Amino acid sequence: MALTKEENETLTRVGPGTPAGEMLRRYWQPIGFANELRDKPRRKRILGEDVVMFRDEKDRVGVLALRCMHRGTSLEFGHIENGGLRCCYHGWLYDVEGKVLETPSEPPTSTFKERVRQPSYKVQELGGALFVYMGPEPAPLLPRYDVLARQDGKRALRARIINCNYRTATTPTWDEGEINPQVFELGVLNTYTRRAADGNRWAHVNYFVMPTMNKTGNVEEGHPTEHRASSSCEVMRWRVPMDDTSTIHYTVEFGAIVNGKMMGTIMTDRSAEGVQETTFGVYRWDDSIGWFGREDQDRAAQESQGAIFDRTTEHLGYTDRGVILLRRLYKESIEAVKQGRDPLGVIRDPEKNKLIRLIPHEDLLD
Amino acid sequence: MALTKEENETLTRVGPGTPAGEMLRRYWQPIGFANELRDKPRRKRILGEDVVMFRDEKDRVGVLALRCMHRGTSLEFGHIENGGLRCCYHGWLYDVEGKVLETPSEPPTSTFKERVRQPSYKVQELGGALFVYMGPEPAPLLPRYDVLARQDGKRALRARIINCNYRTATTPTWDEGEINPQVFELGVLNTYTRRAADGNRWAHVNYFVMPTMNKTGNVEEGHPTEHRASSSCEVMRWRVPMDDTSTIHYTVEFGAIVNGKMMGTIMTDRSAEGVQETTFGVYRWDDSIGWFGREDQDRAAQESQGAIFDRTTEHLGYTDRGVILLRRLYKESIEAVKQGRDPLGVIRDPEKNKLIRLIPHEDLLD
Amino acid sequence: MALTKEENETLTRVGPGTPAGEMLRRYWQPIGFANELRDKPRRKRILGEDVVMFRDEKDRVGVLALRCMHRGTSLEFGHIENGGLRCCYHGWLYDVEGKVLETPSEPPTSTFKERVRQPSYKVQELGGALFVYMGPEPAPLLPRYDVLARQDGKRALRARIINCNYRTATTPTWDEGEINPQVFELGVLNTYTRRAADGNRWAHVNYFVMPTMNKTGNVEEGHPTEHRASSSCEVMRWRVPMDDTSTIHYTVEFGAIVNGKMMGTIMTDRSAEGVQETTFGVYRWDDSIGWFGREDQDRAAQESQGAIFDRTTEHLGYTDRGVILLRRLYKESIEAVKQGRDPLGVIRDPEKNKLIRLIPHEDLLD
Fold first, then answer.
1. Beta carbons of B71 and A298 less than 8 angstroms apart
2. Chain A contact set for C310 (CB, 8 A)
3. Which of A119, B37, B361, C151 is the most buried (most CB within 10 A)?
4. Nearest chain A residue (CA) to B107
5. Whole-angstrom distance, CA of residue B267 vs CA of residue B235
6. If DSSP codes are grouped into helix, strand and coil, which group holds residue A15?
């Protein structure tokens, strides 16, 4: 069941032109938060590409290739002014779509700036997060997952770096004792119900959403909310490759307000800080549990596999059949893209995108 | 006399399957100290391989491949419990020989854990040091060198990193003005006697022991001990490759007690600290001598040759004939291994391994 | 107009045997300052080669290959004594030209030291700077540029590292709005005159001197000096590759004394410190201008292009024709060297080297 070296390569490489990279480029990917964009541009790395993200004076957000197309200086040092982002070197000015607005000291009659364009990507905001689309046109819809699109509560957003390949950072979402995975139109669904000691019925659900997201949770019958993660409210997580050996883990928590009251607690929002840096191999020790702090436990288990783990040496058991299923979906999605089709979970029908509700509704349960 | 590029490659590479790596794997190599193993496993790097070393609840020591054979998480973060080392990720439990004791959440009827095994290496303790054998079976005997096996005195152990190839870190043991090298069954022996100004006769000896050890010292005629290094007691040193560009220098000092009295001083034992890290290019300055401190002088001379020195450019003179001899022994030992024979210095006869006494006994002297 | 990948490679690589490296080796290159040489040797890196520079007891300066030809230890740790530099390892002693003066412990009859030689380079001092020649004999003359050779004023010298390829660190010397470039015997000359608001006539000049130098400045008609940079006195700058991805930027300022009075201010001399280290991506912020401090503005614009910028993606406009001209000169100079001729700007006629005066003299102006 272990991967061959070639399969491992295929699944782990994310740069332009790689099989998995092309597949991942068919989805809108989180690239940051609305709150982190203030008066300066922000440098970002995503799918092996360096880009700069900025908000212009009219509140439009742009994502451009990092290096100025003129002579290569980084636009992270550019100035936001005059309707765009101005390179600090020779002053070329770009709008949010990469259109060249000014090329100072070129002759007034020059048509040069009409003939060239700074590479750019489409970007949209939803629920405080910014999503970028790096694939071919026509772009699909930005999925309106419930934690992003609901308006009846509060939201908190965070992001931090996991210093290893995105595959290693994604697979633990499958580490469940009892699994009954079913492929559905967005990914894989695993559900079950159980009776607690007090006789009450609990509904559990584990959604894996292509390409790298998951949402897990449960709800007690009769509880006023429809879904909550065990320790908090509704939580969805994205793992976005920075490059082959670094991943950003985005978390969005949503707490519903029912009759004016929050149904649970949510984490502190840290979106204004942008992505939190972490150090490979350095984990916070928590004396109260005699182990790494909760936030670093998964990171230690993932990063210690190495930058890109060679999965020719692993041994998968019965409880790893979710991992095996996920690999199959990835391979099928890569193949779909090669054949010009959409991979699993890409949404183009507005009817299906009003609100994507990921909860343990009755028809899914046994 | 300079090496060709190919010879240099052959002698310096230590990973699995390399000629020198295979030769070095025919010897027991020090991997750490008994004192450094307490309640947590210790990560180690040796001959280009990452391993984890731990002591179980029954005081048995194990050396396993670093990454869990299940899904690749590092066992350096494992818990010592239930007769083995448990991976922090999905809880697989291994004993000191790599046997899988538990695979939590696999179905009770599964025979999976009988069919797989975590790679492991044999390990033995002698004189407070731990030695690992990474070659093919049958393993030879762990040599009982005097400084390790004697019981009539005190011992001190230390280890520190030299940030360069093991060959560069090994050759200075030959930098002697007067040398008269003789190949013997463990390596090379160099001896001479001299009369001091007071008329007393001194016996000097320099043992190079395959593959990377040496013991030097002298003794004045009539002195109650048989051997001592110039500044202390008996000292033996090992240089063990971590990988192609890092080496651990192990030092074991032994001071005999004669009539209840230590015959000299020995260094402070630091075995509980494990290997001491050093920083490439950073050396302690000693104002009292206007030069690097004694402990860093060799390291500066070695590391400044670069990670792997290109010996096609060196120029060996008459005083370097020990270096040339050592290269010949290495080449012969590599060739022996290729032909399925033991390299020089491997011991399989228990009669010869009762106590390997490396001293200037009379029959060696002129 | 963008470069092909091959052209970019050809222009950016500086090691021995590379086309641009061979071309650059036909010029004397600054390697440091006379003031930084005191009682210890200094390690230097230039054109991809590691060397050691030292001043012997007779005040002669030597530049030798860094690693001792005997067994490879770095001579940066050597001792200056007995007429040369002695390796700290086995004590071989070299004079400033690499001649082996002593090989301790070799037999007294050995002729070994007459038959070998430590590689060395010619070095000369001018104006407080040290220049090295790394090309084939016969070496050309060390050019006596005015800021180095004049005796009628004060001089200040500095050097700092730019963490990118020398090409990226050199081209900004061409970023001028109004340019009228003319190839002359040392490089490219750009001049113009203008009338200021007060009616006075200003003469401007921009010299690019092969291979990586420039001198810019202007003078108001009737001013007692012949030339000054806008903010100070006469300034010349050199960009010398350490290797393919690091460059040292040397600055020499000269302030003439006319009738006992300095005609302007010059920077503080920091030649005793040697080369100032800088950190890639770290730039001093200056709150008073809301931007990077003046000394770091160019470095930010240059380094952020990356270690070696891929110029296949740039877009050069009308104002970049100086950049295009410079590329042509480089290609022609590389071709000249291939054909055994001197590249542009190499000086062999002593008549032309009495004093190379780079000022806006009347016959150059329009």
1. no
2. 72
3. B37
4. A318
5. 10
6. coil
> What ipTM does the predicted assembly reach?
0.87
How far apart are alpha carbons B117 and B287 in whole angstroms? 55
Closest alpha carbon within chain B to C117: B315
Chain C contact for A110, CB < 8 A? yes
Distance to chain B for A312, nearest Cα, Å: 10
Tell whether C60 is within 8 A of chain B (Cβ): no
Say how far apart CA C11 and CA B360 lie, in whole Å.
Answer: 63
Tokens of C340: 């055994």
Peptide bond into B108 cis (omega under 30): no
3-state secondary structure A271-329: HHHCCECCCCCCCCEECCCCEECHHHHHHHHHHCCCCCCCHHHCCCCHHHHHHHHHHHH
pLDDT classification of C204: cutoffs 50, 70, 90: confident
Element (H, E) at C7: helix C5-12
Residues paired with residue C216 on neighbouring β-strands, in sequence order = C206
Q: For each of chain B's 366 residues, which pLDDT tens digit applies?
A: 578 999 999 999 999 999 999 999 999 999 999 999 999 999 999 999 999 999 999 999 999 999 999 999 999 999 999 999 999 999 999 999 999 999 987 888 888 889 999 999 999 999 999 999 999 999 999 999 999 999 999 999 999 999 999 999 997 555 555 567 889 999 998 887 777 788 888 888 889 999 999 998 877 777 766 666 655 689 999 999 999 999 999 999 999 898 898 888 899 999 999 999 999 999 999 999 989 998 899 999 999 999 998 888 888 888 888 888 999 999 999 999 999 999 999 999 999 999 999 987 766 665
Local confidence band at A232 (pLDDT 50, 70, 90 cut-offs): low
Rounded CA-CA distance B107/B112 in Å is 10
Cα–Cα dist B92/C337, whole Å: 66
Cβ pair B129, B240 in contact under 8 A: no
Q: How many whole angstroms separate alpha carbon C199 and alpha carbon C194?
A: 9
Q: How far apart are CA C181 and CA C190, in angstroms?
A: 5
Cβ distance B317 to C110 less than 8 Å, yes or no, reads yes
Q: C241 in helix, strand or coil?
A: strand
Nearest to B315 among C69, C107, C110 (CB): C69
Q: Is A253 on the interface with C (CB under 8 A)?
A: no
Q: Cα–Cα distance between C188 and C214 in angstroms, integer?
A: 9
Smallest Cβ–Cβ distance between C71 and the set B291, B300, B314 belongs to: B314
Residues in CB range of C250: below 8 A, 6 or more apart: C30, C129, C157, C158, C159, C237, C238, C239, C240
Helix (H, G, I), strand (E, B) or coil at A192: strand
Residue C229 pLDDT > 70, yes or no? no
Q: Is C105 on the interface with A (CB under 8 A)?
A: no
What are the phi and psi torsion angles at C175 (to 5°)?
Answer: -80, 80
Candidate from A70, A88, A107 with C-beta closest to C314: A70
**Quick one: closest CA in C to A76, which residue?**
C304
Q: Which residues of A228-256 are buried (b: 16+ CB within 10 A; e: fewer)?
A: beeebbbbbbbbbbbbbbbbbbbbbbbbb
Q: Name the phi and psi angles at B266, rounded to 5.
A: -125, 160
Residue A267 has a CB neighbour count (10 Å cut-off) of 15
**Subunit contact B314:C70, Cβ cutoff 8 A:** yes
Ordered DSSP codes for B337-359: HHTTPPPTT----GGGGS-B--S
CA nearest neighbour of A237 among A254, A220, A262: A254
CA distances from C279 to C220, C293, C300 (A): 39, 15, 11
Q: Which of C73, C79, C80, C106 to mutate to test the interface with B (most CBs of B within 10 A)?
A: C73
CA–CA–CA angle A92, A119, C299 (5° rounding): 50
Q: What is the radius of gyration, based on Cα positions, of chain C? A: 22
